[in-house]
Amino acid sequence: MKLGADGAVAARQTGGLEWARAPRVTMVDTVGAGDTLNAAYLHAVLEGHDLRSCLNFGVQIAPQAVSSTDRHALPPFLKSV
Q1: Which are the contacts of 59, defined by CB distance < 8 A and separation ≥ 6?
Q2: CA–CA separation, 48 vs 54, rounded Å?
Q3: Which one of 9, 25, 39, 60 is CB 3.0 to 4.6 Å from 67, fit for a cystine?
Q4: Structure pTM?
């Protein structure tokens, strides 16, 4: 579940929750923030990462989308994240 500026939380199949805190940024335009988080999360899932890593990746990428109106402002290389 996306929590906006508070990050995101996910439930484990075995019980319990994983929570990832989003870094603080100056918001310029929130359009696409959720889509960006979803895309980053799913990318990490497809790369075989665990739940915590996937959630953290999503909440690290999404703030970069809201801190600029430039939709090309996201890191061009994943290793820079």
Answers
A1: 7, 8, 20, 21, 22, 23, 37
A2: 9
A3: 25
A4: 0.79
Contacts of 24 (CB under 8 A, 6+ apart): 5, 63
DSSP-based helix, strand, coil % in the chain, nearest 5: 45, 10, 45
The predicted-structure confidence for 6-60, as pLDDT tens digits, reads as follows 888 999 889 999 989 988 888 777 778 888 899 999 999 999 999 999 999 999 9
Asked whether 59 and 22 are in contact (CB, 8 A), the reply is yes
DSSP one-letter code for 17: E
Q: Where are the domains of the chain?
A: 4-80
